[in-house]
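Hi L.,

You mentioned the student needs an example of a multi-chain input paired with its predicted structure. This one should do, with 614 residues in total across all chains.
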Amino acid sequence: MGLQMLINAILLGGLYALMGIGFSLQWGISGIINLSYGAMVILGSYISLIAFDLLSMDPFISLILSGAILFIMGILIYRSLLQPLLKGGIVFTLIITFAIRLIIENIMLLIWSADYRTIRLAYAGSNFQFGNAFIPLTKFLSFILAIVIIYVVYLFMNNSKIGKGIQAVALDKEGAQAVGIDVQKMYMINFALGTALAGIAGSLWASIYSFSPHLLGIIVGKVFIIAILGGLGNIWGAAAGGLALGLAETSGATFLGSEWQEAIGMIIMVIVLLVRPHGLIGKKFFG
Amino acid sequence: MLAKNNNYNRNILLIIAVAVVVFIFLPSILSGYYVRIFTAIFMYATISQGMNLMFGYMGYLPFGNAMFFGIGAYITAILMGKGFPFIAAIPFAALTAVVVSIILGFPVLRLRGHYFAIATIGMSGAILSIAQNATDITGGAMGTTLPIIAKAPGIVYNYFYLAMLGLMVVTTLAIYFIVHSRFGYAVRSIKANEEAANSMGINTTFYKISTWAISAFFTSLAGALYAYWMSFIAPDEVFNVMIAVHTIVIMLIGGAGTVLGPIIGAFIIEFVSEVTWGGFMEYHLAALGIATIIIVFFVPRGVVGTLTDMVKGIKIALNKKVGVSND
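Structure written out for the whole complex:
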């Protein structure tokens, strides 16, 4: 029981970590609280569903497609709607991204209705044993992929020229501008990277769970908690936040009952906000 | 200049008084459908005033303010379920909301800007979960019913119309007097510069918590009336973050930091919503989203703010002309 719960928590946490990183990067570096993030995650799920229905493409492959489509969408949204409003402060980004969420949600409801959809993979039922715990194959695969993608994002941020540029902008906007970095371009790439990660997380989500437009709000709630737990704009922080949320939710569901799952996350977030506003392992300069 | 201002204010007060009288007698010529729409407008205007006091005047965005609406609704429902009359339940509903806002306010109002907004969302979510799961008290996620008034529907709807209108007028007057008092100057100094206000000797913690309590007070009254009006409430409906979002949009459209802004915004948004609901219901969400984007882009200071700017601009232009001709 104990081992099974721990494994479930870690497998869930890996997916949460990937989901939270994009949101955390957008908030911490581009200064945008993206309330449409949940819509982008579920959009990734629907893209995988289309790919599966039409091309019988596995979600673990079509995540490339979701990532690419949402990356372009992120660039368009940033250039047309967000960049002109950044001067107005973070509150305006809250309102605009919520409006974007409403529009995406409406389009989803029109095309796919409010019903829950599932991608039925041939190997969805298979699992393997580890000690006396069972590990479902799809959950294991998405966990591994999530970790790999997080590591790739980390390498990109620390080794590529653009990634270093984004970090420089996050550290000191004026200073970065002074040495010739295109600040708006960095913000845009960072934002689009965030939406791409949302889409990829959505594809992985679709390989395990069913999804519908009802999940938009719940997902935004979760990524808020993860980003706050980890500290904004911090990749490993968000990863740790995702694992922590997975652990808290799984153990909370075991000991208190699954109906308290969301309340537990919310309460943890408020406490962390009050006690350590820059996150559990966050460094102050990113906030 | 002062005399002119007084004159200007007196004119506005006169217009408002006439408007209130007109609205009192309006239900006798309106159909039940419009009476309901107007009642909803008054309700949203009231909640939006609470938002306006917090954000428009103090600069703190309480994204989770729907929790006070829900608390007001649920305390009323629970007490009336135990046999209390509505009038006796209202003070308890308001008191609970005020006490909750003070208890939560001490820790949360230490946070600034978006951190405060997010913390209130978290608390709102937590209270929603409690309302959904404390089935013995609240009736759980399925919702709970309130006693129905044993009178003809027309009379009942008129009763709630007048009650909501009264609440909106009282709230607006209260906001007006608060904003123009010593208290209001302290509140506005927090928006301008909290550190400076603090170092001038203003007890910012006291003002922030009191302001949130006032906001919670009026929001919970709207919730109490709503519960009795609908005679059925469910947790995910009255604690819905969408209520807060709706009122934020209303406040921005009307003009944040203006006394009449929320009322004007409520009229605009509710009529737009009604038209989109009636005309093309399936696109209702997208229409609201697009309307929001247009507002934020083209009238970021709201209708009242933009009009005030225009009046000021005309006045300055006129003064300049007069100055030139005097030379």
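You could point out the following to them. The CA atoms of residues 70 and 196 of chain A lie 5 Å apart. The beta strands of chain A are 127-130, 133-136.

Best wishes,
N.
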